Amino acid sequence: SPDGRGQWSWLRENHSENYGGWVLDGFLRPPSPELRFLRAVGDRSLYMQAATTFATGTMIDWVFGGVFSKSWGPQYQSIDFTKYPIQNAEITLHFAVAYRWSNAPLFRQLAEDGFDLLVTGFQKEGGFASYRRSDYRGNRRSSGSSFSPRQLNDLFTPEQKQGLVGLWGLSPSSNPAMLPFVSRPESFAQNLGAMTALLRTMREARANHKQEYAEEVFCDSSAFVTARLLECARLLGDEAREEQAMAAMESLRLYRSGDNDVLRRGLGQDYLPAYLGDAIGYAEASLEAFRDVRLRYLTGLSSELDLSNTQEKLLAFIPQGVRT
User: Which uninterrupted H or E stretch holds 256?
Assistant: First the structure.
């Protein structure tokens, strides 16, 4: 059987207090699997410590939302700007959990930004793109998420630029990637208005920046992302985002094929049968949809849902093999 106690001990002994994750093979990645384990065993202390430290690092993309895939090198200042939907969906859920446990505005903002990236950026017909391509432009910087000193001079007054250094860490000497980041969670709460105003200007400056997403869409990863979005929206108590997550669930029905509910791996690939992971992902997303619709019915959040409609909707989501 898995050595859960040994894994727990390893996580506690090897957590990087400076970067909020666990370094494997020289790379620092979003600590989603580790946080999932800590949440399962009830180690809220280490969970919040890791989530907080990671949330205040430069792997967060404050301009477009979500997180980058990995970093390496001295002080982990070299970053792979590729984004993956599964990584982003799970870390978004962890930020929502951290928000529920702490009520810190930083975590809610990160959860909302990550959610919106997935539904407005990654989402395609039938699910979510398998990755967003890196926009690395050299000199450790992203063409969209980084800002050169010259660009900041064009956007901000000298007084505002002082705020960029103090509040968003945009100093080339200490932050060569020139990615805006939050150094301390309490600073975000204490300076929410000023930080939001500066961030809004940076985001508006990148409004026309083209992000390139892969064409491939697969059932397993799309179903996993959908399940996390449903969980995240419930934790945030955000009815509008719940509707968006339910729409993503509805789009997964495109992977159903025939009366016997055989799943297929990807759209336009009828010859390619589903893997076990596709069926498991679909079943998990169906379960989260069940929880969502049942919660709405029991709490009266949606008056137009009566019991019969709820049952019909759930049965439409769940494949025959899962129901039996």
Answer: strand 256-257
